[in-house]
Write a structure and sequence with these properties.
The structure holds 2 protein chains of 2 kinds.
Chain A (H helix, E strand, L loop, with lengths): L2 H6 L11 H39 L4 E10 L2 H4 L7 H5 L3 H18 L9 H5 L4 H13 L7 E7 L2 H7 L5 H6 L5 H12 L3 E5 L2 H4 L14 H32 L4 H13 L4 H15 L7 H26 L2 H9 L4 H30 L2 H5 L24 H9 L5 H31 L4
Helix pairs in contact in A: 2-20, 5-7, 12-15, 12-17, 12-19, 14-15, 15-17, 16-17, 17-20, 19-20
Chain B lengths: L2 H26 L11 H36 L13 H20 L5 H6 L4 H10 L10 H39 L6 H17 L1 H23 L2 H6 L3 E2 L7 E2 L2 H32 L2 H16 L2 H21 L11 H25 L3 H9 L4 H30 L2 H6 L17 H9 L8 H34 L2
Antiparallel strand pairs in B: 1-2
Classes of the chains: A mainly alpha, B mainly alpha.
Chain lengths: 447, 486
Amino acid sequence: MTNAAVHSTPRSGSLFSQDQRTRRRNTAERRFRIYGQAAIGIAMMALVILLASVLGNGLSAFRQTFINMPVTLDADVLDKKGNRDADDLKKVTTIGYSKLLLNSLTQLIEDQGLAIEGLAASDIKDMISDDAAAQVRNRVLANPELIGQTVSLKVLANGRIDGYLKGRVSMESAERDSNVSVNQLRLTDEMMERGLIGKSFNWSFITAADASELRPEAAGLGVAILGSAYMMIVVLVLALPIGVAASIYLEEFAPKNRWTDLIEVNISNLAAVPSIVFGILGLAIFINFAGLPQSAPIVGGLVLTLMTLPTIIISTRAAIKAVPPSIRDAALGIGASKMQTVFHHVLPLAAPGILTGTIIGLAQALGETAPLLLIGMVAFVRDFPAAPPEGLFDPAAALPVQVYNWTQRADPAFVERASGAIIVLLIFLLAMNAVAILLRRKFERRW
Amino acid sequence: MSIGLLLAIILGLAAVGYVFGIRRAKSASGGDTRSLHSLAGYHGQSVFLFVAVPALLLVGIWLLVQPIIIESRVSGLIVEADIPQGGSRDLVMSDVRRVAGGLNIIAGEGGLSEDEIANMGADLGDLRSRLGGVGVALASDIQPNVFEASKRYRQMTNTGQIMLSVSAIALALAGFVYSIARITADFRARNVSEGFVKLLFIACSCVAVLTTFGIVASLVVESLHFFRLYPVSDFLFSLTWNPQFRGGSDLGIWPLLWGTLYVSFVALLFAVPVGLMSAIYLSEYASKRVRSVVKPAIEILAGIPTIVYGLFALITVGPFLRDYFAQPFGLGSSSSSVLTAGLVMGIMLIPFVSSLSDDIINAVPQSMRDGSFGLGATHSETVRQVILPAALPGIVGAILLAASRAIGETMIVVMGAGAAAKLSLNPLEAMTTITVKIVSQLTGDTEFASPETLVAFALGLMLFIFTLGLNVIALYVVRKYREQYE
C-alpha cells in the first residue's frame, strides 16, 4: 500500500482499533524509546565492564605469596666479630642473607621430606624472591637481638611462584619459561599441601618502593603515593588562594573592560587546553628555563596547579555568585567597606561551594598522567623523598604515572600490579568525591 | 643564607611589624582608639603587607633571573675546544653546575677551605674522586676550563645569594620603617591595606593570562628552533614520519594527523549517538527514579582518570578486539589499534556529550513541546522534528567540544592506539597520534638540540591551535544558540 493510499482512505471502523498509520507511528515511538534505553544500557555496561576489568585484574595484587619457614639467623655469618656492632652488621650484604635463606629452605625441604626428582639447588634458590634477603636484612639490622636465633618468617616468594598460585603461570607455560621450572611448581604444590606456602595480605604493595623489572613481587606504591601527596599539597597551597583571589576579583571588583574580558576568555580557554600541553609548558618553563629538577613533585605540583586553576576559579565564581546580593547590600548599608563585605560575609557563605570545587579539582589533578610523563616523573625512583619542604625537590613517582610505568614492563605480573595501583587511585578519588558530596549536602544553602 | 631561612626572616619581620603597627596606632590614638580613622588591626595589616610583599617579590624575581645571568657569563669561559665530540654546550654547562654543587658539599663538610678551592686547578685528577665521594659522579676527567667555570659559577652563585639576602632584608626593613613612620591617628590604614589586597587579587587573576602566555611562548619559541633545523614545508606536507637517531629523519605531520583524526572520528561515532540518545531519554522519557540512578552513574564515567581508560584499552578491549575481530578476519594482529583507542575514548566521551546535550535539550522552551503535542505529534516525533532541530546548533557545539577533547586526549591513545605512524584505512591496525608522538619524543633521555626532540614542540603547537580553534568555534556556536532562546 502506498502512502497516498493511506491518506485517501476514509476512516472507517472503530476509534478503538488503531489504523495502520497510527500503528506505525506507535511502533516508531516504541522503537525510539528502545534506542534511548539501549544507549543508556550501553553506557551502564561500559561502566560495569570497565570497573569489573580493573577490579578483576587488580584485587589479587593486594595478596601476595609468602613462604612460611624457620630461618636460622646464623651468628657466624651475620656477625663474625660477635659484638653486635651496627656498622659491622651492615657489612654483611644481601648476598650473605640470601645464602642463609637458601640454607634454611633446603633444610626445611629435607626435614619435610619433600624431595622432588631433579630439583636443583638453583631451583630452590629461585623459589625465594631476590628482594626477600634485603627485607630480612633490614629486619635484622633494626633488631640485632634476632641474630643467633631461629625465627619463623614469612619470606616473599618469587613472582612466578606467586603467579602460579594466582593462575597466571601453569605447568604448560612453565615448560617454555626460563624463569621458572616445572619442578619448582611441583614443589610449590607439595608445600601448599603442608601449609608451608600461601597468600596473605600484602602491606608492602602499599608501603614499599618500586622494584626492578625482574622482581614484580616486591614492587610497591609507597614512593608513588608519597609523590602524589606532595603534589597535592603544592596544588592545594597554590591553587586554592590564587583561585579564590582571582575569582573574588572577577566577581566582586573587576570593572567591565577589555582586560577583564581577556582574563575571562583566557580562563575558559585554559580549561579546554589538552593536559599534555601543560606538560610541555612545565618542561619548557619550569625545567629548561627556571632550572628546577626533573621528576620532582614541586614541578608536577606547579604544572597541576596551572591545570586545576580554571576548575577552581569556575566553581568558586559560581559559589560567590550564588550568595544573594541582599547580603552584600545589607553589609554595605551599615557601613562596611567592599573588602569587609567580601571577607566577612560573602566568603564565609561561599566557603562550602569553594571547598567542594577545590576537592573536585584536586581529584582531577590526582588522576592526571600525561603532563607528568613529560616532566620526567616516569623515571625509576626507589628512594623515598625527604620530608617537605626539601622533599618537594627530590625525585619521586606519582600514582597514575606508576600505573603507566608498570604497564610498559614485560612481565605480566606487572599488569596485576598496575590494576591494583588503579584500585588504590580510585579509592583515593572516591574518598575525595565522597567528602565533596558530604560537604555539599551538609552546608548547601538555598536562598 | 639558605632561601628557607631568608623567607622565615622576612615573614618574622612582617609579623613583628604587624604587632608594632598595632601598638604604634594605639599610642598614636592617645588611649582613645575611637579617634583612629582605621581600626588598629588595619594599621598592623598595612605594615605586614609593606614588609612582606615587596621583599618576597624580590626574592622570587631574583631566583628566576640570577641563574640566567650567571649561565650567560659562565658559558663565555668555555671555549669550543672544551666541548667533547658529539656533546653540546648544554651538557658541559650541566657538568659545570654539578661540579659547583659538589664543591659546595665538600666545602660544607669542611673538606676544603675557600682558599684551597680558589688555588686548586693543578691537581684535577684527585678532584674527580673527591667529587665522586660526595655523590657527584662524572663521566670523564674535568677540563681545566670547565673547572675554572665551575669555580666561577660557584663563586657567582654564592655572591648572588649573599646579595639577595642583604637586599631582601634591606627592602623588608625599609618597608617596615616606612610604613611604621606613616602611622598617625588620621592615617587611612584600612584604605591602604584594602588597596594592597586588591592589587594582590588583580595579580592572581592575571595568572591565567600568564599561563596562556607561557604556553604560547614556550611552544612558539621551541617550534621556531625546530623550524630552523627542519624545513616547515617538509613538516607540513611530507607524508612520512620516520625519526632517526643519526639525523636524516622524515618528520611529516600527516601520518600523525591522520591517526589523530581517525581515532577521534571512531570515538565520536560511538560517543555521539550513545551520549545523545541517553540525554534525550533521560530528559524526555525517564522517570525521576531512573534519572536519579543513571545520571550519577554516567557522571562516574566522567570522573574516572584517563589512565584507567588507558589500562582498560590495554588489557581488556585491545586483546578482545584482536582475538575476536582482527585475527579471525585477517585484518591485523596487534592488540593496539585505532578501533581499540577509539572505542575506549568513546566511552570516556559519553558523559561529556550526554551532559552537554542534556543542558541544551532542557534549554528548548516548553512552549515548543506543548505546541507540538497539541498538534497531535507523538513524543518521538516531537523530539525528532521539533526539539532536535531547535537544539541542533547547541548539539553541534557540544560535538565540537567533544572532538577537541578527543584530539587532545593522551593516555588512552598512548596505551591503546600503538606507535606505528602510517596512513591506512584499516581500523584494526595500530596507528599513532600527535599526542603519542609528543610523549615518545619528549620522554627518556632527550637532547634539546636535535630536531627529533624539538619536533614535539611543533606538534604541541599544532595540537594547541587545533583544539583552541575547535573550542572557540564551539563556544561561539553555543553562545549564539543560547541567546536565541533567552
